[in-house]
Amino acid sequence: MRGANAALGAAGLAAFLALGEAVPRLGLVKEAYFPPTSRIADALGQEVTDHAFWTALGDTLTGWALGLAIAVGAGVVVGLLVSVVPHLREATASTIEFLRPIPSVALIPLAVLLYGTELRSVLLLVVYASFWQVLVQVLYGVQDVDPVAEETARSYGLGPWARVRHVLWPTALPYVMTGVRLAAAVALILAVTAELVIGAPGLGARIAVAETSQAVPDMYALVVVTGLLGLLINVGARTVERRALAWHQSVRGEVMV
Amino acid sequence: MRLFLLRLFFVVALPALLVALWWLASDGSTNVYWPPLRTILRTFPDVWTSERLRSDLVPSVLRLLAGYAAAAVVGVALGTVIGSYRRVRAVCEPVLEFLRAVPPPVLVPVIMLFAGIGDTMKIAVIASGCVWPILLNTVEGVRAVDSVMAETARSYGITGVARLRSVVLRAASPQIFAGLRQALSIGIILMVISEMFAASNGLGFTIVQFQRSFAIPDMWTGILVLGLLGFLLSVVFQLVERRVLGWYHGLRAVSRRSP
Amino acid sequence: MHASLVVSGLNKVYEGSGRRVEAVRDLTFTVEAGELVCLVGPSGCGKTTLLKCMGGLLTPTAGEVRLNDRPVSGPPPGMAFVFQEYGRSLFPWMRVRENVELPLKQKPLSKARRRELVMDALESVGLTDAAGAYPWQLSGGMQQRVAIARALAYEPAVLLMDEPFAAVDAQTRADLEDLVRGLWRERGITILFVTHDIDEAVYLGERVLILSASPTVVQEQLKVDLPDERDQLHTRVAPRFAELRTHVYEQIQAAKRGGTDAGPPEKTLT
């Protein structure tokens, strides 16, 4: 069953690549706009031998990882703080509901003025966008804490810190992991956006250069690279989520189905 | 009444505090990039006249809605087909996983090749970025329709369009809405940056113009407008969701109380 | 309205990922028109598989099911199914009224007639007041009543019930048993009722079919010669009731041991 699915998937992928080759070759779309798969593959081959490509990839990954780390750290700390301190949850609800949907791209002009094409520009956008993903999941997670467990812990005289460690955190962990997974995807989107629009060094900036210099196959090759990067991040985040939570019911159920 | 006042206090207190802090901290600021809030607010009505709203806000929102609606229709339709057939799903899965993983903003230069820099390009960019979360969530939702529900429908001869409308799409609706929600925030990002790339009007275009001409307070008002737009769209979305998924939230509340 | 069910030589084998499981080996029996027959058997003996084959939800590997002399090849229109998992069988996005009405929309009925059938069915199960509620707002027993109402409104000739009361508490269960018997006597529907509860089978049925352990065959068919008027209080303490259930119990124990020391297929206790 599994093998059959993999074979079907490989067939689908092969068909997708073949279609990408055939459509421009048959003249259904202009080759100048949509180069055939083989030419994109050629361009990709050239990219990976170029030192500058690897530097750009490294820049993108740096912005992504640093931004994600800051957002996760801040999201978890703020989330726990808001949940533990009495009344803070109610007091912050409206502010969070207001700030969260503000699109982080609104900060692009500000980032340009303040930091230009520095890494900090990328970080500003990445952190703002992914912070909310983590924070909201932490808040959901803490809300899910079984009141009986909480009361049991309280009745045994566990202090606030011990309660956070032994009751709150384990319950919230699956949610935090989900938040990290969502944030990882959003962080990549914003990192590439910042590079593409502001011109901070990285894959996005390289795509912008390829676009302005009409190097269409290279542009497609770079788009494919960002896609593969995204795929890697998604699969990696899902794996980490599953590993870290092997004991947890929600994951066990998911694996079984 | 006292409870209501208390709740109102909780809703208003922190935002008021933050605005007050901003006001005080920025008051008398001479840093060009951080103009006093007083100046920003004074500039606001001058910049965002009804004419400007008509020439910049309305086109942006219309493009967003057009692209979003197209993505919703295509995503749900295709997702239902793919989710209903195990083999189709197995064939499409790797390709879809890849396409979803491409960060949507890199589509802007690609789609500009085909569609130029007009409205078509922006709508196409928004649609092609929004479609993946909707599509994949629909696939997941349709695939996971409860087996007993499916058998109930079959045993009562509920087939075809009736099955699709009354059973499959309804059962998948929580997942579909999760996809629509993700797509909305992606849509706003794409709306803004497609206008920053190439446009003669729209919110993204205007804000970048302000920034380039160093009209800093004007730029700040633009950021505020974008923030407000994002907030309003999310409120509208939540209202729709609460209407359509009222049953789902009720069901979840019940099953949480008695696990 | 009356309909008979004939199962002959039914065999069902599940095949998947290299494994082959024979859930039902060779089943032959008849349910007469207007009869209430209970099927009991040890757990895991393929009761649900059998019922799904009869309801046209599964295709048998061999043999056939005939409803009124017509072979069943898909869910037949004159048949309604009540599942054990009421929580998953009712659609949570529809109110009780809409849940009951949905199957009727597939039939050529006027709107007024549909509404009449819905209200009549809800009244029969005592849930007129709950018409506007969502199923998940009701207790388990009430939810199963909604599922029964949905089946009634469909006006089936045959009602297949798959351990419908396995997940409700004892008191509710007794009420629901009386409800089913009452509806059966009132409406003359042919009912096939699957259960793992011996008392329930004897209390409800006109006839009890005892199945063997997997792979399943009919171990014994037993006529229940209790009076038509039954009630929880007196019927269950009647000596005849005790004899019948002891017999069924012994047969099931024998079935579990895998012995097929059953007598002739149709046998009445003497």
TrEMBL record, chain A:
Name the UniProt record assigns to this protein: Nitrate ABC transporter permease
Keyword Transmembrane helix: yes
GO biological process, one term: transmembrane transport
ABC transmembrane type-1 domain boundaries: 57-241
Spans traversing the lipid bilayer: 64-86, 182-207, 219-237
Gene designation per UniProt: ssuC_2
Protein topology in the membrane: Multi-pass membrane protein
Keywords, ordered alphabetically: Cell membrane, Membrane, Transmembrane, Transmembrane helix, Transport
Pfam families found in the cross-reference section: BPD_transp_1
Family membership: Belongs to the binding-protein-dependent transport system permease family.
GO cellular component, one term: plasma membrane
Protein location: Cell membrane
UniProtKB/TrEMBL annotation, chain B:
Main location: membrane
Transmembrane segments: 5-25, 65-85, 106-135, 183-208, 220-240
Keywords: Cell membrane, Membrane, Transmembrane, Transmembrane helix, Transport
Recorded topology in the membrane: Multi-pass membrane protein
Superkingdom of origin: Bacteria
GO cellular component: plasma membrane
Residues covered by the ABC transmembrane type-1 domain: 57-241
Localization: Cell membrane
Name of a matching Pfam family: BPD_transp_1
PROSITE patterns: ABC_TM1 (PS50928)
Similarity comment: family membership: Belongs to the binding-protein-dependent transport system permease family.
Name of the protein: Nitrate ABC transporter permease
Origin organism lineage: Bacteria, Bacillati, Actinomycetota, Actinomycetes, Kitasatosporales
UniProtKB/TrEMBL annotation, chain C:
InterPro entries tied to this protein: AAA+_ATPase (IPR003593), ABC_transporter-like_ATP-bd (IPR003439), ABC_transporter-like_CS (IPR017871), ABC_transporter_ATP-bind (IPR050166), P-loop_NTPase (IPR027417)
UniProt domain ABC transporter: residue ranges: 5-238
UniProtKB keywords: ATP-binding, Nucleotide-binding, Transport
Gene Ontology MF term list: ATP binding; ATP hydrolysis activity
Listed PROSITE patterns: ABC_TRANSPORTER_1 (PS00211), ABC_TRANSPORTER_2 (PS50893)
Domain of life: Bacteria
SMART domains in the cross-refs: AAA (SM00382)
Pfam families, per the entry: ABC_tran (PF00005)
PANTHER family: ALIPHATIC SULFONATES IMPORT ATP-BINDING PROTEIN SSUB, TAURINE IMPORT ATP-BINDING PROTEIN-RELATED
Protein name: ABC transporter
Record organism: Streptomyces olivochromogenes
Organism phylogeny: Bacteria, Bacillati, Actinomycetota, Actinomycetes, Kitasatosporales
Name of encoding gene: ssuB_1
